[in-house]
Amino acid sequence: MKLFDRPLTISLSPNLEKDDILLALSVLLNLRHWQHGNHIKQAENWFKEYFKTKEVFSFNSGRSALYFILKAFGIEKDDEVIIQAFTCVAVPEPLIWLGAKPIYADIDQSLNIDPGLLEKLITPKTRVIIVQHTFGVPANINAIKKITRKYNLRLIEDCCHALGAEYENKKTGTFGDAAFFSFGRDKVVSSVFGGMAIFPKKYKKIYSYAPRELYGQIRMPVRKWILKQLLHPLIFSLVLPLYNLGLGKLILALALKMGIIVKPLEEAELSGGHPAHFPALLPNALAVMIVNQLKKLERFNRHRQTLATVYAHKLKDSVKIKLPAANSGAIYLRYNIFHPQANNLLKLFKEKEKIILGNWYKSIIDPEGVNKGKVGYTPHLCKNAEEAAELSLNLPTCPTLKKEQAEKIADLLLKYENH
Ligand SMILES: Cc1ncc(COP(=O)(O)O)c(C=O)c1O
Question: Which family is annotated (predicted)?
């Protein structure tokens, strides 16, 4: 690895390319169009076209989009919403903000809701099932749809990892009553923060509140918040080339400490707290960034699939490593493997090889530090999810990772698999 190369880490704005950095700079200088401008419509139109629906609403995060969908469906205090364990705290958060109760369902080998375990969780208070396509691997939608139909429940697809994934040759996001997407820094395409809600069906039948009216009540984020997100790619243009020298890490820590940029989740959210900037609309400044990234979606996803094939091929004979089942519709936002000493491997890679592999959902309501009681999870409730979290280790598939680097990671995994 050369000194100024991007560090081999699964995170640190993995979708950020040179053109995105230059674009952020030009948007930063175009102060008049930070909040309003025609890129918001362009981003929404991309989704309208891609999903063949008119009902598309842009937001400043996946969390805001989910909040809006739940509100449109009339979810309120004491309603129960089924979500899976092995998720991000940003999923139960909007339910808690509405006073609703997250009911955690256990998962199957695909790391998605196990439809066979769902029915026993349904009570007279259940209103919604949220189906997450974890790491871009589609859930068993047909089986889940049978249940939502039988009990007359709303089905929401969490496509935050799965923009462009397919189930039975149809795009994920088109199966439920609504779907939401995230443009967070580690997601399929990124504008640091951002999200979209779509409703594939005509709304009159299923909504308690007309979405257009509801949408009209949601605010634009303040300029200070937008500025921080625009500074993110610019700070990272310094952090990434200087990371291997140690200086990049320092710049990152300082920028965070000084509040120049922000983490994806605020401290208060780890206990279900409700920051003032959610829900909010997608500002034009971030819409410019996401419109640019959406042009790259196909390339990004093909690359992810190629790297998944590299890992699958290289690791197929390993005795200790268990691979995800091959799935031609998956986009593999991350390639998750199981290993009995996954935690050791994460440590070894970091210390000996300076490679940071992924620990998404090592804490089953991620990230580490989430107060599980406050977000309605009781220990040992979802045994499969807890076991998966213990054994999981995610391999990078990001657009900025070269095929040779993925091969190197696979070779090192084989070297260390017995440690
Ligand atoms: C599965 C899943 N759903 C929803 C979200 C929320 O997205 P956002 O961070 O844009 O609010 C996340 C965020 O990490 C996620 O991993």
Answer: Belongs to the DegT/DnrJ/EryC1 family.
Q: Name the residue of 13, 91, 163, 183 to mutate for ligand 1: max ligand atoms within 8 A of Cβ.
A: 91
Which of 199, 216, 233 is at the close of a domain?
Answer: 216
Same domain for 199 and 88, yes or no, is yes
Residues 161 and 64 in one domain: yes
Residue with more model confidence, 213 or 220: 220
pLDDT at 87: 98
Q: Which residue has the tokens 């999923």?
A: 91
| 206 shares its domain with 332 | no
Q: In this structure, how many other beta carbons lie within 10 angstroms of the beta carbon of residue 202?
A: 11
Ligand 1: distance of its center to the CA of 160 in Å? 6
Reported as a pLDDT band with limits 50, 70 and 90, residue 419 is confident
Q: Is residue 232 part of a domain?
A: no
Q: Which of 60, 88, 286 to mutate to test the pocket of ligand 1 (most atoms within 8 A of CB)?
A: 88
Q: What is the pLDDT of residues 135-156, one digit of tens each?
A: 999 999 999 999 999 999 999 9
Nearest-CA residue for ligand 1 atom 16 is 88
Q: Do 202 and 302 reside in the same domain of the chain?
A: no
Give the burial string for 320-359 (b: 16+ CB within 10 Å, else e). ebeebeebebbbbbbbbbbbebbeebbebbeeebebbbbb
pLDDT greater than 80 at residue 321:
yes
Cβ(160) – ligand 1 distance below 6 Å: yes
CATH number at residue 106: 3.40.640.10
279 Cα to the center of ligand 1, angstroms = 13
**If you average pLDDT over every residue of the chain, what do you get?**
96
In a domain, 346, yes or no: yes
In a domain, 407, yes or no: yes
For 160-191, the pLDDT digits (tens) are 999 999 999 999 999 999 999 999 999 999 99
Q: Are 389 and 362 in contact (CB under 8 A)?
A: yes
Question: Out of 71, 101, 171, 187, which one is annotated catalytic?
Answer: 187
Which residue range(s) make up the domain with 304? Answer: 297-416
**Active-site residue 146, yes or no?**
no
Task: Find all residues with CB under 8 Å of 307, minimum gap 6, and list them.
Answer: 332, 335, 395, 396, 397, 401, 403, 406
Distant-in-sequence, close-in-space partners of 351: CB < 8 Å, separation ≥ 6: none
Ligand 1 atom nearest residue 63's Cα? 11
Instruction: Tell me how far the alpha carbon of residue 186 lies from the centroid of ligand 1, in angstroms.
Output: 9
203 pLDDT above the threshold of 70 = no
Same-domain pairing of 155 and 303? no
Ligand 1 contact, 61 CB (< 6 A): yes
Reported as a pLDDT band with limits 50, 70 and 90, residue 6 is confident
Global pTM? 0.97
